[in-house]
Structures are given as C-alpha cells and as structure tokens.
Design a protein that fits this description.
four-stranded parallel sheet, nine-stranded mixed sheet, about 35% helix, TIM Barrel, about 500 residues, 2 domains, 16 helices, alpha/beta, Urease, subunit C, domain 1, globular, about 15% strand
Length: about 500
Amino acid sequence: MALVIRDAEVLTMDAVTGATPVRRSIRIDGDTITEVGTRVRTDDTDTVLDGRDRLVCPGFVNAHTHSWEYLAKGRYDNLPLELWMLYSYPILGARPLSPDLIRLRSLLFAAESLKSGVTTLVDDVLETPAQDLDQLDAVVGAYDRIGIRADVSGHVINRPFVDTVPYAADRLPPAVVSTVRSRPVPTAQEYLDFSAEALRRYRDRAGGRVRYMLAPSGPQRCTDDLITGAAELAPAHDVSCHIHVLETKVQAVTGREFHGSTLVEHLRRIGALTPNTTLAHGIWVTDADIDLLAEHGSGVAHNPVSNLKLGSGIAPWRRYHRAGVTLGLGTDGCSSSDTPRMHDVLKAAALLHKVTGPDHHDWPRADEVLRAATAGGARTAHRHHEIGTIAPGMQADLLLYDLDTLAFTPRNRAELQLVHSENGSSLRRVLVAGRTVVEDGRLTTVDEDALRAELAELMPGIRAEQDRLERENDVFADAFEWMHRTCAGEDVGVHRWSGPDPSLARSH
C-alpha cells in the first residue's frame, strides 16, 4: 500500500524546477518517493491525499543545532559567545546528566523541531563534564522513537578551556587556571575509539535514519591529531565532520595568536578540509578562506538568528554563493537562539544580508534561502543522496502546508510567502521516511503533554543546579569580559563586519 499526494503545488528543490511551485502528484512506497509527475500510478489499496490547496516541500534540515542546550532555553540574554559559554558550557562544577533526563530533553527538542517542519537534525551534542555511550544511547533512542532523522555527535573539547581563547588565562587567579588545567580531557585516540564504536553501534539504526557524526568542537579547542583523525574517519563512514570555525572575532584573533594564520588556513594545513567537512558559522572568514572552502568542497552551516542574539557577526552570504560554497541553515542551540524553529531562521537569512550592502542584486533570494534550508542542508550533512529534494529515489521527508490560510492570502508567490509570511501555523502534515509524524499540529509518535508534564516536575531541581553552576563559574567572567573587549577592538583583516559592540554588558 502506497501513499499518494495528488495535484499539489510542489517545490521540488531539484535542478529543474527548484523553488518554483509546480502542480505535481507524488507517489510514496514505504519510505521512498517512487514517482513525481503530473500523473502517477494509484492502486485500489493506496491512501490518496487531496493535494489541492496544499503546498508540498522537502522537510527542513536544521544544519547545526545543540539539543543539549534545551534545558537552558530562555535563560540568557545580552552575552557574547565566550561569556555565554561560561554558563551554558560550565567550565567548573558540572555533574553528569542521567540518561533518563537526556532522553526527555531530546524528545522535547525533537518534538518542537518536527512541529515546525524540521525533519532532519544535525545535532552537535555535548555532555558536561564528558559524554559516555549510555548518554549517547539516550539521544539516539529518543530520535529513533519520535521518528525524526538525525545525525548525532559526540562533541569533544580536548584542550583545557582556559587555553582555548587568547589572553584570558593571564588575567585569572593562578589557582583557578591550575584547577582547570588539572581536569582530565580525552586524548585524541580515546575520542576516535569512542567515535569508531558509535559509528559501528548506530550504523543501521532505524534504517540509517539516525546515525553518528564526528564533531571536534573547533580548531582552537581540539588538538590537531584529534581534528585530523576525525576528518579522516568521517569520509570512511560517509558521514560529516562538523567543526565550529570563526564564529566570533575572538576566534579570528585566536587563529592568529595560536597558529599564525586564519583557522581555515590551519585546517587546510593539517588536512582537515574535505567534502565531508562542514564549518558551523564561518562568519569571520577572509576571501582566501572562502576560496579554500570552495576548493576543498567543504560546506558552511549558517546560523543567522543565533549569530544576531550573541552579537557574533554577519556571515558573507553572497561571497559564499559566488565562490560556490554550499550553505545550510541552522538554528544553533536552544540557549543561543532559544528555539529550534526553522521558519524564524529562513526569514532572518532572507532579511539579514540585505543590510550588508546597497546592491540589491546581491541580496538573498527566496529560492536561495529555501535551497539552504533543504538541499543545501542535506549537502552539508552529507545526506544529499537521500534527502533535500523531491524526486524518485529520495526519502519521503515532506511538509504539507495549507494554502487556504491568512499566511498565503492573497495567493501570490507561494515560495516568497513561505519564507516571508509563514511561521509554521499553516503546516498540516509532516512526513519522515514516508511516515506521518505530525498531523494537524499533533505529534503522532509521542504524548507531548506527558513529556512536558514530566519536565515540569523536574525543573525546580534543574534550575537550582543551573544557579549553582553559574555562581561557581562567575570567577571567569571578568577575565573573559576583558578578553572579549580586547579582541573586539583588534583589526584581523576579515571579509566583513566591524565586530560586536564592546560595551555589551554581562547579564544573566
């Protein structure tokens, strides 16, 4: 028995019709799209959905996010990245979370993602003070259960945190620096062994719908042998190697101070730029950096909402496109953007770059934004062979929007209205691998009300622990504030943007 969507307006996002709506029918057998055309085969046993007044597009790929920040949603404001990390990524005092809480956290994050049209997560999961396989199992199991597609990482930092940023260690009490440096960090071999086991363990999980990816935190936070090993392991298993690079001006200064070059040039020098390498953020890049990424086929996951909230900067959208660098779109974490909703990201990407130059021919087009949210994200996740477009042989990850709503009234250009007018309220059905996981705003695979009630009971204890960690990590705040101000005033010769306002006040 197949599912047929008949006579819908379809954004195929393929090389022929792209983001131009075309009237098409779609046949889905099992988890796979088998036919797309003005007419498709139907059998008596098929389920047929009337596609009239419906817009169908590929499911969104959240090309960079951190589900583990979900418990700190709405907790911080007016903090640049390095100061924000003191509290959301505590350096001192963190206690391991139980697999049960991680399961609950992951289910809620995935639930909100699915209800907003995200069918694939590139989830860079960090557990503090360290991640074990039981914790990773909890994330993978939650995503398998709820029905979302996901790449799940073991995010790793294997340098002492005070040594991952310039200048700060010199302004901290020696006893604090000594304490941080005495904390155990994984060796490169330990991380690669952990990753090899995870890759083996999850190779066939949910038919490949949920899998493991490599995620060295960044070239300033990981040793070269770890990054190089991860970059070699990723293509061997046909997954991505996901690395935070040049998110802030501090990181631009870091490259010069630590390596005598940009961080992108350093990655090239150690052999870590490959078609499987994806840079998260990529804001403070030089023109030469962009050319290197294009030369090596590496992609960028762009996070405009998070970058705005943290005052990190504005990525060079048009320069990336001109160089042929593939862009995906991500929400980043729920503590740096406070939502996993991709509709917010689409609109921000479409609007933000219009203020970076007066030539309106260079401004983002709706079709480019939609491509980044679908086919581009699939490419940066190294899943472009199975998702991101609507075509025979692709996985049936689809979104069905009701065109008979105020967001699409009057009906003009559906692709523009999807980017600029729609906020997810018109989304009627979400399919992942041919299975309906959201119908009329309700999840079909889990009890959302029960999940929220379960978390509500736990929140008093979670908040008390967050308060304790913030008090303990306040010791770093003045030194990191000084470092942020110092780096914000430095000329690092990057492609664009003058940097965050150094007068940003610390508040939490």
